[in-house]
Design brief:
The structure holds two protein chains of two kinds. Chain A has 24 helices and 17 strands. By secondary structure, chain A is α+β, with helices and mostly antiparallel strands. Chain A has three domains: 195 residues, Aldehyde Ferredoxin Oxidoreductase,  A, domain 1 (4-Layer Sandwich); 178 residues, Orthogonal Bundle (Aldehyde Ferredoxin Oxidoreductase Protein, subunit A, domain 2); 164 residues, Aldehyde Ferredoxin Oxidoreductase Protein, subunit A, domain 3, CATH 1.10.599.10. In chain A, helix 12 runs parallel beside helix 14, helix 19 packs across helix 21 and helix 19 packs across helix 22. Chain A starts with 9 loop residues before the first strand and ends with a helix. Chain B is α+β, with helices and mostly antiparallel strands. Chain B has one domain: Roll (Ubiquitin-like (UB roll)). The radius of gyration of chain B is 12 Å and the shape is globular. The termini of chain B are far apart. Classes of the chains: A alpha+beta, B alpha+beta. At the A-B interface, helix 8 and helix 9 of A face strand 4 and strand 5 of B.
Chain lengths: 624, 91
């Protein structure tokens, strides 16, 4: 029996010539890499030449589902964008929920890859397993909400849309790919890659069904997991189903997980985080929003009817609340909701945008930039009017926000000058997300060593430290939060598991509530191949090695990347729950590399490791 | 002596749809015990099977974690504000 749960159909679109071809990667590729960024890494590694300019026609951009996307597997609603990141110069991916992923698969393809550059703006319509290109000149310039509305008006309400906004059209490195009016594949700058191809949108018409190997068994596992979800007192389920990620904001500020005042402050500088958290946010919520068939339904729609920040849109997530809130000492929830909506509509990564604003405020505070530089904006801590105004500029590409901040922190430092470097909370060109290694040291390891530096959605030891670990995962012992030795096996196991979650088309967030053993069960019943926690580890290790091999081939050596010193507590904070903490990142990174079978000095996967994982395709590149 | 306690968002339904209650206690340990006695469905959310504070529960007195004070034996005074948090990161 051929592998089920997938469609054996990948579309390859040349936007320059308009040619479209279709290929079946074959059972072995699906078994080894699943889908999502596993399959994406395999295709990019084998088809895209090293050294390609990520914003050139030769670069590839893929949108992929996984074998569990659109199935009964709980949280099987994800798609992932892949490509070479124009921010880091290495591997790029961005994962997203909503309804687009299942729709793309039900439109008849597991994924679609784009090369070339269209002469004029186009969109790709996917239906009945076919991809066709059409003019998007009428859509170019529209925001993401209006773009989606126009497609649904013209092509039918059932179509689902992943698109870029004006930020992506300008090929800004802050650009995200947006679907459902506010779900973002935001990181790695892949919205800029899409814009560089003049590809406004991918539109999917979901008419097909996805055949799985054993539908009854898949349903039975789903029921088992749901019973766990609904068990009285499941704290994570209660929190996320009732509040979503906004429910952790105040707690994260108080415990020190949320960075404050561009990573220099503590809760003493932002003493009322409840103003931008849980109940305050829910008070503005008009209805809940769940991704396709998700029992958690952590999203929502909010409405603020009056005042300068009147807005109606998606509920701001924790990352956004912290980036535009605690990072900027901004306790005006309405202004954050407005900034969130600007980002969603204009197609901008809220993490990158908010942290770039915080960077600019620190530069202003230090006198590195002045009111003259900002065109009159008083970028002071907590000045929500200026925060919203500069975010609008970043979205529009105008003024100081557009011209200086419009490509993120690294580019802004290059434009302002080296004196701005001290405020630059980024790694390898990626702005840091809203989780602090001084509270959870493991995420500092992840920020450096994952193929996508500065990524908060990668699993690792920080899940142990943050009480976010999936039940029944079976991971090796965890020695303790601030014990830096002996974490390698634990970290490798958890991160390998996370790679499978992402490659399968599941939500990394939902899977922290799902018993770990359910993941191989879901894969087995969907694909018709016997996955165990052992084979999950093997697949995860293979995907990790391949993503890293992509980086190494591009000259990105993660072991050489450095986090900003203050992020590691150099010098340590003087107040707050993490006062006095300095993180030893290097020991954990080294132990992780050894556990993965990678050279602890260079980060290069050892030849024997690659052979054991069946990654002969990269041995020549890494070992000659 | 009563101290105002603010509980995590999902606990609201166990406090008759409130987020804050006044609870007596000279120390944090006493206060938590009294809270669990007054609202029994909170007991399994505060304590693990061995009667220890759940690892995912963090307690702050005013702006400081009890981990930075005297732990569960941290003394409480009139006007103190205790915040209980779910120490779950993510999002």
């Amino acid at each position: 029996m051929e592998v089920k749960g997938v469609l054996h159909r990948i579309a390859f679109v040349d936007l320059g010539t308009g040619d479209v071809t279709y290929e079946d990667p074959g059972d072995e590729v699906y078994e080894k890499y699943l889908g999502g960024y596993g399959l994406g890494a395999y295709i990019l590694y084998t088809r895209q030449a090293a050294g390609v300019d990520p914003l050139s026609p030769a670069a590839m951009l893929g949108l992929l589902t996984g074998p569990l996307t659109g199935t009964d597997a709980i949280t099987g609603n994800r798609f992932i964008a892949v490509g070479k990141s124009p921010k880091t110069g290495g591997w790029g991916d961005a994962n997203c929920g909503g309804y687009f992923g299942p729709a793309l698969k039900m439109a008849g393809v597991d994924g679609v890859f784009f090369t070339g550059r269209a002469e004029k703006p186009v969109y790709a319509l996917v239906e009945d397993g076919q991809v066709s290109l059409h003019s998007a000149e009428d859509h170019w310039g529209l925001d993401t909400v209006d773009t989606e509305a126009k497609f649904q008006e013209d092509l039918g309400k059932e179509v689902r849309v992943a698109c870029i906004g004006p930020v992506g059209e300008r090929v800004s490195l802050l650009a995200a790919i947006i679907n459902d009016g506010g779900r973002a594949a935001g990181r790695s700058g892949l919205g800029a890659v899409m814009g560089s191809k003049r590809l406004k949108a991918v539109v999917a018409r979901p008419t097909g069904k996805i055949e799985v190997a054993d539908a009854d068994a898949l349903k039975a596992t789903r029921k088992r997991v749901l019973d766990e979800y609904y068990k009285e007192g499941n704290p994570a389920y209660e929190l996320f189903s009732n509040y979503g990620t906004c429910g952790i904001t105040a707690g994260s500020v108080r415990t020190g997980d949320a960075p404050i005042r561009n990573w220099t402050g503590t809760v003493h500088d932002f003493p009322e985080p409840e103003l931008i958290s849980d109940d305050a946010v829910i008070a503005t919520q008009t209805r809940k929003y769940g991704c396709w068939r998700c029992p958690l339904a952590c999203g929502g729609h909010v409405k603020i009817e009056e005042g300068p920040y009147a807005v109606e849109g998606h509920k701001p997530e924790y990352e956004t609340l912290a980036a535009f809130g605690s990072m900027c000492l901004n306790s005006s929830l309405a202004s954050i909701s407005k900034a969130n909506d600007i980002c969603n509509r204009m197609g901008m990564d809220t993490i990158a945008a908010g942290t770039t604003v915080a960077f600019a405020i620190e530069c202003y505070d230090r006198g590195v930039i002045t009111k003259e530089d900002t065109g009159g904006l008083e970028l002071t801590w907590g000045n929500h009017e200026a925060i919203v105004a500069v975010t609008e500029q970043m979205g529009n590409g105008t003024g100081f926000g557009g011209q200086v901040l419009g490509d993120g922190i690294k580019a802004a430092v290059a434009r302002i000058g080296p004196e701005a470097e001290a405020a630059a909370m980024q790694i390898a060109g990626e702005e840091l997300p809203m989780h602090d290694p001084r509270l959870s040291p493991g995420i500092g390891c992840s920020f450096v060593i994952d193929a996508t530096p500065g990524r908060h959605t990668q699993y690792g030891t920080w899940l142990e430290e943050a009480n976010f670990i999936p039940p029944d995962l079976g991971q090796p012992a965890f020695p303790g939060k601030y014990i830096y030795t002996g974490k390698g096996e634990n970290g490798a196991y958890i991160s390998n598991f996370g790679h499978v979650v992402n490659a399968a088309g599941l939500c990394m967030f939902g899977c922290t509530v799902t018993p770990g053993t359910a993941v191989p069960e879901f894969l087995t019943h969907a694909m018709g191949r016997p996955y165990t926690m052992g084979t999950v580890q093997e697949v995860g290790a293979r995907i990790a090695a391949l993503r890293t091999a992509f980086n190494l081939r591009e000259g990105v050596r993660n072991v050489e990347l450095k986090l900003p010193k203050r992020v590691l507590g150099i010098p340590p904070l003087e107040k707050g729950d993490t006062a006095g903490i300095t993180v030893d990142n290097q020991t954990e990174i080294r132990d992780y590399l050894i556990a993965m079978g990678w050279d602890p000095e260079t980060g290069v996967p050892e030849r024997e490791t690659l052979q054991g994982l069946g990654l002969d395709l990269v041995i020549q590149d890494l070992h000659g | 002596m009563a101290v105002t306690v603010r509980v995590p968002p999902p606990w609201r339904k166990h406090l008759d749809d409130r987020r804050e209650v006044d609870v007596a206690g000279a120390t944090v340990a006493e206060l938590l015990a009294n809270l669990a006695a007054e609202f029994p469905s909170l007991r399994e959310r505060i304590y693990d099977g061995d009667g220890r504070l759940m690892s995912a529960v963090a307690v702050f007195v005013n702006q400081d974690s009890i981990g930075r004070l005297a732990g569960l034996e941290t003394p409480l005074a009139d006007g103190d504000r205790v915040t209980i948090l779910m120490a779950i990161a993510g999002g």
